[in-house]
Amino acid sequence: MRNDPTGAEISRLITLLAKLPGLGPRSARRAALYLIERKESLLRPLSGAMAEAAEKISPCQMCSNLDSVDPCAICTDPRRDRTRICVVEQVSDLWALERAGAFPGLYHVLGGTLSALDGVGPEELNIAGLLARISTGQVSEVVLALNATVDGQTTLHYLNDRLANRGLRVSGLAHGVPVGGELDYLDDGTLAAAMRDRRDF
Questions:
Q1: pLDDT at position 183, please?
Q2: Apex 196 CA angle, 191 and 201, nearest 5
Q3: What is the pLDDT of residue 5?
Q4: Could you give all domains of the chain from N- to C-terminal order, each with its CATH number?
Q5: 143 in helix, strand or coil?
Q6: Which DSSP state fits 4?
Q7: Structure confidence at residue 1 (pLDDT)
Q8: Which residue among 19, 32, 66, 88 is least enclosed by CB atoms within 10 Å?
Q9: Beta bridge partners of 85
Q10: Strands, E, within 46-197: which ranges?
Q11: Mean pLDDT on 41-70
């Protein structure tokens, strides 16, 4: 008979850590033990930072980026080119492009991709918000920076059709992004080159 050597509090911590991407039960146990052994230098500061993030961080009403201010710092930055919007699937993709310093304009986060298998249609994504932003007449180019996956390309073609005949330049990332690749995992040089060499549809 095997007994659980951890108490209820530690078990709960391990269970929650195991829900993080890339952490299974074994890795979660190691992470929990590491945190507990460094309670003052790591666990308490991390707990405080997470509580503050939960309290203060929310999606930007304009682009759906995550920030402690609304609209977010990118949307309110006067140095950004407001005539160009880069459409991405997730906030992590926006952060990846920002790390690469590849795009000087504004962003729009869809919140996912179209997927018939998962029951994700246009209504589940932030497409209406994108069309509303374009309807102001200030935007001259929309960059569809979606992942080179089947669902990403399906979403790209859907958006390209919705944006047609609106007097916009609609462009996409160049072939520097590999098929099946996800933006958040690409190196900064590849991302910057793909953005620089984007193509019209």
A1: 84
A2: 100
A3: 62
A4: 8-56 (1.10.8.420), 66-200 (3.40.1360.10)
A5: strand
A6: P
A7: 43
A8: 19
A9: 106, 142
A10: 58-59, 66-67, 81-88, 105-109, 141-144, 169-172
A11: 96
